[in-house]
Write a structure and sequence with these properties.
single chain; disordered N terminus; 12 strands; six-stranded parallel β-sheet; binds zinc ion; two-stranded antiparallel ribbon
Length: about 200
């Protein structure tokens, strides 16, 4: 019997059986965020932990009931319309909550992630850290501030081949979000990124 086992006798099991925390996976498009999220969630499933996976309803990109990476890795997920709806769907015995496209959630998402982590859930959030103009994309900056673990993923600049931290929009639009449009974005480095390009091509 290990020390942990003997300690468990003194602790009422449910509430204190584990500690929660928040992990954030963030970077530009094409940097492998969803792949990394799916990899972590799969490992938890293999360990027979109870995993629930969510994405915002706005993202119809490839599949309504799966998270799908650009390399076609996929994992079953539920679509929710708000962070509060997400919270109501998490079961008491869930060990791990995965959230994709965190930047499309409302500003209450960090509070919801905090609440889940406080009650012992491992929360893993993937999302864009910047929009097409290079501006911090809420609520990801707030999540980065409160997360225990942060993974910054970089893509490769399609212009020069250096590490890419930006999502370049290639068509003219002032909408902050263009969902499901293929060929509309590419990864670029700081030097090759041009936030004016979308407007200049009008
Ligand atoms: Zn470049």
């Amino acid at each position: 019997m290990t020390g942990a086992d003997s300690r468990d006798h003194e602790i009422s099991d449910a509430r204190l059986r584990r500690h929660g925390w928040i992990e954030v996976i963030t970077g530009s498009m094409f940097s492998g965020k969803s792949e990394e999220l799916i990899r972590r969630l799969r490992r938890a499933q293999i360990a027979r932990q109870r995993v629930q996976i969510f994405k915002p309803y706005v993202d119809h990109r490839y599949s309504d009931d799966h998270i799908v990476s650009h390399s076609d890795m996929r994992i079953a997920s539920a679509s929710v319309r708000s962070s509060s709806e997400l919270l109501t769907q998490v079961a008491d015995d869930t060990d791990v909550v995965g959230i994709d496209e965190g930047q499309f959630f409302d500003l209450n998402l960090p509070t919801v992630c905090d609440a889940l982590a406080d009650r012992g859930t491992r929360v893993i959030v993937a999302g864009l850290d910047q929009d097409y103009l290079g501006r911090p994309f809420e609520p990801m900056p707030q999540l980065l501030a409160i997360a225990e673990y942060i993974t910054k993923t970089l893509a490769i600049c399609v212009v020069c081949g250096e590490p890419a931290n930006h999502t370049q929009r290639l068509v003219a639009s002032s909408d902050r979000v263009l969902v499901g449009a293929t060929g509309v974005y590419e990864a670029r480095c700081r030097h090759c990124f041009d936030p004016q390009l979308a407007a200049a091509e009008k």
